[in-house]
Prior knowledge:
By secondary structure, this protein is of the alpha/beta class. It contains 14 helices and six strands. The longest helix is centred in the C-terminal third of the chain and has 36 residues.
Amino acid sequence: xxxxxxxxxxxxxxAGILWRVSGNGxxxxxxxxxxxxxxxxxxxxxxxxxxxxWAQVTQxxxxxxxxDIMDSVQHGHLxxxxxxxxxxxxxxxxxxxxxxxxxxxxKSQLAFMDSILKFFVVSNMTVAEYSPLRLWHQYLSLRxxxxxxxLSVKDPMDFFxxxxxxxxxxxxxxxxxxxxxxxxxxxxxxxxxxxxxLVDSCFNxxxxxxxxxxxxxxxxxxxNRPHVxxxxxxxxxxxxAKYNDYFVKQTDYIDSLDxxxxxxxxxxxxxxxxxxxxxxxxxxxxxxxxxxxIKSAPTLVAVGINHFIGENGLIHLxxxxxxxxxxxx
Length: 329
């Protein structure tokens, strides 16, 4: 009963992360680049065909002003984040202020969970402050970032200095090319927050605790590590077909969890909704601006590779509007 729907996108043999957009009356070709937000700019410099594309385009778009946000954080100017954090938050659906993380598990379960999550959680943190599934997603995110070929989490400034998206913006401006963002920073932050908060309206605390424990148990026992490792490998290989395949199968592991069938179904639905909020909905909102800009000048649109996938992905949407979209080889 997995809810992931395989994308109706022609996955050309040898397709990578850089695609040409042509036809439908365009005077010059434009390009779309699938980025990975924690991969350094050196990865992009090694991409075949990118120097030629860079020389051709006169303007560049990224999701939002990543370089400005990174520079602000790096220099301690946190006004934009402080403003965001000051916004009123929707209360969790199951607010139990006296229940703590340790109250959700037996002693043996807690010992197992702490062996995995001790670097990502304070054992007496209140559940109202950090619910179990949000903790799990934070754990996965931080573990991904600590992979050896990614940016060093020991030196967070590596992220600000070298991350692909921000460096593209800086290079664009220094080369005298026009830069534009596809959404305002708060649009991105609000989508992220909505995605994070979704868990508390989908599952009560005990259900979250059960899911967290089963996910951790699955990862500890499984020889096949969570899908994020496969996604990362496929991206490093610049293999979009493989990346797409892993992406649409990323929730298949849920079938293996020792959970009631009804809870598994809801977990699949939750993962699908989360992807819609953080990915598909934002991609659809970008389309009017992208279509306008590629008609005006040869453009490089650099957005997260996940925004390429599926019927509401950038490749399929551009083809629906009559453009030829094919990989740069």
